[in-house]
Amino acid sequence: MICVLITGANGFIARHLAKALLREPQFQIKGAVRCSRNSVVSGIDVVKVGDLNSSANWGNAVKNVGVIVHAAARVHVIDEKSEDPLTQFRKTNVEGTLHLARQASKAGVRRFIFLSTIGVHGAETFDIAFNEHSKPNPVSAYALSKWEAEEELRELSASSGMEVVIIRPPLVYGQDAPGNYSRLLRLLSSGIPLPLGGIHNERSFVAIDNLIDLIKTCITHPAAANREFLVSDDEDMSTTNFARRILNAMGKKTLLFPLPLSFVKWLGSVSGRTELVRSLFGSLQIDMNTTKTLLSWNPPVSVDEAIKKSVSP
Predict the structure, then answer these.
(1) Which of 147, 210, 216, 249 is the most buried (most CB within 10 A)?
(2) For 29-60, what is each residue's pLDDT tens digit?
(3) Nearest CA-CA partner of 280 in 207, 209, 198, 210
(4) Residue 48, Cα to own-chain centre: how many angstroms?
(5) How are beta strands 111-115 and 27-33 bridged, if at all?
(6) For residue 81, what pLDDT is reported?
(7) Do 175 and 124 form a contact (C-beta atoms < 8 A)?
């Protein structure tokens, strides 16, 4: 039996992962939380560890653990309140992650799976999709902190022998997904006409069930050790196509009308929403051939199936 510790156990990805692993008899599940047990999946052993920083005590959490899935993080928010967000991201996502990894290594943890972001490669693709060898180009404080954590984890792995697996997903969607996907669902379900028609970009997304299946594969697959993996649904689409497929699953007929891209970019710049505009109108494509080949893995859930599940009550 493999004891798996999931950090950020009351978060979106962690909850779905815990539910999936609980269905597998070979796994014993621990869940680490900052302070509250709210939203934690029942049936796992919950350990409170406090804030994810360089002084947290992970002793009880990492004891007898074979694999850690590190899902806890300070995530990007649209309305950032901190005057120095990069410093705050680094305290949690770099210093806090490395503090945990060092204690895990000393405790004999065999494998450390780090959930990073496709943003370490950049915010947009032009003609060529990102793969695991694409040059790092993080343009946000969040993505930069994830890249710095990756670098530190690789160094720790080389000196300690603890295996490190890095997964870089794009936008993750699914039932109860936070962030941009939940905002998109609210907008589409409102019935208000939206300027999302006629967008000719190409974007990669990943359904929560597909991401969870890859994480499960990386827990045990020998070829996953010390590798970086990109993941998606393996079906790129425009924002307009994505929105229309969501509307179809909802049974809604919200009008999607086109706006000139130059006007949209101007509107985003004057309103401080440049990143949001890029995420809706820019392209971001992922080449995950290495993931599929090395792990003999393919996304088990289709896009339409995943969207339908995500909008179900």
Answers:
(1) 210
(2) 999 998 877 788 999 999 999 889 888 999 99
(3) 198
(4) 23
(5) unpaired
(6) 63
(7) no
Q: Which residues contact 65 (CB under 8 A, 6 or more apart)?
A: 3, 4, 5, 30, 104, 107, 109
Tokens coding 151: 């670098």
- Pick from 225, 65, 106, 70: which is nearest to 154 by CA? 225
Residues with Cβ < 8 Å from 255, sequence gap 6 or more?
A: 193, 194, 197
Positions of the chain with pLDDT lower than 70, given as ranges: 76-82
pLDDT at 97: 98
Catalytic residues: 142
Name the pairing type of β-strands 163-168 and 172-173: unpaired
Please list the residues that pair with 111 across neighbouring strands.
67, 163
Nearest of 119, 145, 146, 152 to residue 134 by alpha carbon:
119
Q: Closest Cα to residue 208, out of 172, 156, 170?
A: 172
Sequence-distant (≥ 6) Cβ neighbours of residue 136 within 8 angstroms: 120, 121, 147
Strand pairing of 172-173 and 67-70?
unpaired
Q: Which amino acid is at 265?
A: K
Query: How many Cβ atoms are within 10 Å of 265's Cβ, its own excluded?
Result: 15
Let me know: does 29 contact 44? Beta carbons within 8 Å: yes
Residue 78: what pLDDT? 52
SS (H, E, C) the chain: CEEEEEECCCCHHHHHHHHHHHCCCCEEEEEEECCCCCCCCCCCEEEECCCCCCCCCCHHHHCCCCEEEECCCCCCCCCCCCCCHHHHHHHHHHHHHHHHHHHHHHCCCCEEEEECCHHHCCCCCCCCCECCCCCCCCCCHHHHHHHHHHHHHHHHHHHHCCEEEEEECCCEECCCCCCHHHHHHHHHHHCCCECCCCCCCCECCEEHHHHHHHHHHHHHCHHHCCCEEECCCCCCECHHHHHHHHHHHHCCCCCECCCCHHHHHHHHHHHCCHHHHHHHHCCECECCHHHHHHHCCCCCCCHHHHHHHHCCC
Supply the pLDDT for residue 260. 84
